[in-house]
Amino acid sequence: MLGIATALLYFLRLPPEMNRLLPWVNLLVPAIGLVCLFIGLARAFGAPAVYRGKIWGTVVTLLAVLLLAGNVVLFRHTRDVPKSAGAPQVGQQLANFTLPDSNGHPTSLAELFATTAGGAQAKAVLLVFYRGYW
């Protein structure tokens, strides 16, 4: 349930100050899960007659600790990816180009920004590149 609530946070229109905090939620959710595992493990060792999965609980807890450590390492290294020097910036005008559409017909960027049948002009264009034919 907490994971679903976290996923919904990404779709809300939050102020920019709050958006900077969202990646930290990716560390908070596994940490809460790990605390729950530790509580379960403490119960298993506290009442061995009731909870018989002490070995399995220990294995699952160790795996959860390893996954959380991997999550932290990946979280730290995502900031090490260099920015692309050749990538267009937000709001930057692109040079006109022509690419085939999904039906194989050539379509230019200028055609996509042209006025539509209703008389409205497109404000933005989203390009989706497929990996290939399946």
Major sheet summary line: 2 strands, antiparallel
What coarse outline follows from CA principal-axis ratios? elongated
The mean pLDDT is 76
Please give the order of strands in the largest beta sheet. Answer: 1-2
Low-confidence stretches: none
Radius of gyration (Å): 25 Å
Q: What multimeric state do the chains show?
A: single chain
The run of helices and strands is: HHHHEEH
Binned strand content: under 5%
Portion in helices: 40-55%
The total of helices stands at 5
SS content category = mainly alpha
Find the count of extended strands (DSSP E, 2+ residues): 2
Give the CA-CA distance, first to last residue. 35 Å
Summarize the model shown.
This protein has 134 residues and is mainly alpha-helical. The protein is built from five helices and two strands, in the order ααααββα.
Characterization of the model:
The chain has a domain at 2-80. Helices cover 49% and strands 4% of the residues. It is built from 5 helices and 2 strands. Strands 1-2 form a two-stranded antiparallel ribbon. The radius of gyration is 25 Å and the shape is elongated.
